[in-house]
Amino acid sequence: LTMKDEILKRFLLAKDNPISGQFLADDLGISRTAIWKHLQTLQEEGYVFETIKKKGYVLVGKPDKVDPARINSFLTTERFGRNIHYLDEVTSTQSIAHELAREGAVDGTLVIAETQTKGKGRMARPWESTKGKGVWMTIIIRPDVPPSQAPQFTLVAAVAIVNAIKSICKNFMPSIKWPNDILINGRKCTGILTEMLAEMDRVDALLIGIGINANQQQDDFPPDLQTIATSLSIEEKEEINRPQLVATILNYLELYCDQYIREGFKPIKALWEESSGTIGKQIKATTLREVIEGKAIGITENGVLEIQLENGEIKGVYSADIEIM
Ligand code: BTX
Q: Which residue owns the Cα nearest ligand 1 atom 13?
């Protein structure tokens, strides 16, 4: 964190308790004038401080942003989210993450923006990223695994996101739609896009892109998404604390990634099946080559979706668009 963010973090953690300029100066080893200047900058960014006589300052107002200090104040991780690139507007957090990964960004580096002008889904489909209303982020991870295991990380991420949502929202049940969506009452609130930088036999970096509709209201969505998209806030009927959501996802994601590396896919598969809205359903899977109709009966240890056809035959699909019939 920068010095300004260190200061902000202390106010966030202190909640309603005042902090004095002198305490901050001593704690951070800088002058009171320097502290005062940082407070000025924070005020220009929309933070509001109240002065309490002889006691110091209390943070009483925050702009609605997913800034690093606020994410940091909810983090319990060792690595994930400890290095954050926060931007107001980007083309896509995936592109920034690609550059950073090539330059050697550390495991767990987070790229997050208030909006994307060219947010992308799978197969170059566009991803709508309303300014200040969602979570548009990419996390760069560097697991020591072969490229063939990369798709499983989409499932690891889905489990982390769904559990983070469940721990924050209480008024609905999200479910995972294989492989990369999270739905609420049949509407999409989250998409995951995993990309990879790899050598022949080793993953160099995985870029896990996560898009979550958090605080949009129905009319924030463009016409083509009106009937297929929803946001956490619409379903929860409350404003979502985006920095808390981001940190909670990172907390779960580090836990599950480490567990996956230690114990393999089995524990993740169990968690995934617990939250799946696909297994047991009659589905239509459109792959690049064919359309398969049948009953989704499970995922394999490799994260492959198994579909049982009418004639009993079982087919495995690695990647497809799923329609639940
Ligand atoms: P997908 O290909 O499964 O889904 C894309 C489709 O979802 C679009 O064609 C559209 O129909 C629908 N869609 C677009 N925007 C939204 C939205 N906001 N809410 C609901 N449905 C929508 C899913 O791809 C993977 C998306 C990953 C997005 C993240 S955001 C951070 C990172 N940066 C980036 O450019 N992409 C990822």
A: 127
Identify the residue whose C-alpha is closest to ligand 1 atom 5. Answer: 121
**What are the beta bridge partners of residue 139?**
110, 208
Please state the rounded mean pLDDT for residues 135-150.
96
Q: Which domains does the chain have, with CATH numbers?
A: 3-61 (1.10.10.10), 68-274 (3.30.930.10), 282-324 (2.30.30.100)
Q: What is the pLDDT of residues 226-279, one digit of tens each?
A: 999 999 999 999 999 999 999 999 999 999 999 999 999 999 999 999 999 899
Pocket test for ligand 1, best of 122, 127, 181, 232 (most atoms within 8 A of CB): 127
Which protein residue's CA is at the shortest distance from atom 24 of ligand 1? 121
pTM, two decimal places: 0.93
Reduce the DSSP state of residue 162 to 3 states and report it: helix
Distance 193 CA to ligand 1 centre (A): 8
| Per-residue pLDDT tens over the stretch 114-131 | 999 999 999 889 999 999
- With tokens 């963010």, the residue in question is 5
- The structure tokens 């993953």 sit at 203
CB proximity list for 149: less than 8 A, separation 6 or greater: 143, 203
DSSP string across 81-147: TSSEEEEEEES-HHHHHHHHHHTTPPTTEEEEEEEESS-B-GGG-B----TTTEEEEEEEE-----G
Those residues whose C-beta lies under 8 Å from the C-beta of residue 308, and which sit 6 or more positions away, are 294, 295, 297, 314
Nearest to 85 by CA among 31, 140, 163: 140
Residues with Cβ < 8 Å from 147, sequence gap 6 or more? Answer: 196, 198, 201, 202, 203
The complex's ipTM works out to: 0.99
Given the CA of residue 321, which atom of ligand 1 is nearest to it? 3
